[in-house]
Amino acid sequence: MIMDRTQIEAVIPHRDPFVMIDAVQALEPGRTILASYYVSPDHDYFKGHFPGNPVMPGVLIVESIAQAGAVCMLSTPEFAGRTAYFAGIDKVRFKRKVVPGDTLRLEVSIGRMRGRIGFGTGKAYVGDELAVAAEIMFAIG
User: Which of 31, 49, 96, 116 does the annotation list as catalytic?
Assistant: First the structure.
């Protein structure tokens, strides 16, 4: 493990209950990241999404991909101490349910940057199964 939760929180401004990345296993700042997130059965959203059939909301899986991307970009000297904001999401595909007790493996690759605007691709896996794939656009504040 390269970064734990405390080190992640030193890079991104997210805090409980909205930190959706627990550890970083590999990082090439500004280029790629491999991170993980344990989907705890204790999350409040499982009470209503869906009673008797708990499923992690897809938008939160996309958020975990974005947070991994933010750690990747904000780990560069150029953007350290800044905030990364969503600017767009394209080609999102949901392939598998994510349920309490799953661990997401988050893979994000940063493509091009135009000033403070960047583009990347992200995937969330459970084991070897693809759960979500998305193209993301972000702005560094």
Answer: 49
What is the rounded end-to-end Cα distance, in angstroms, of the chain?
28
The CATH code of the domain that includes 52 is: 3.10.129.10
- The number of domains in the chain is 1
Q: What is the Cα–Cα distance from 25 to 36, expressed in whole angstroms? A: 8
Cα three-residue angle 133-75-38, rounded to 5 degrees: 45
Residue 43 catalytic? no
pLDDT one-digit tens code per residue, 82-125? 999 999 999 999 999 999 999 999 999 999 999 999 999 999 99
Q: Summarize pLDDT for 4-21 with one digit per residue, the tens.
A: 999 999 999 999 999 999
Cα distance between residue 45 and residue 39, in whole Å: 11
**List of long-range contacts for 115-120, beta carbons under 8 Å, 24+ apart:** 116/140, 116/141, 117/87, 118/73, 120/69, 120/72
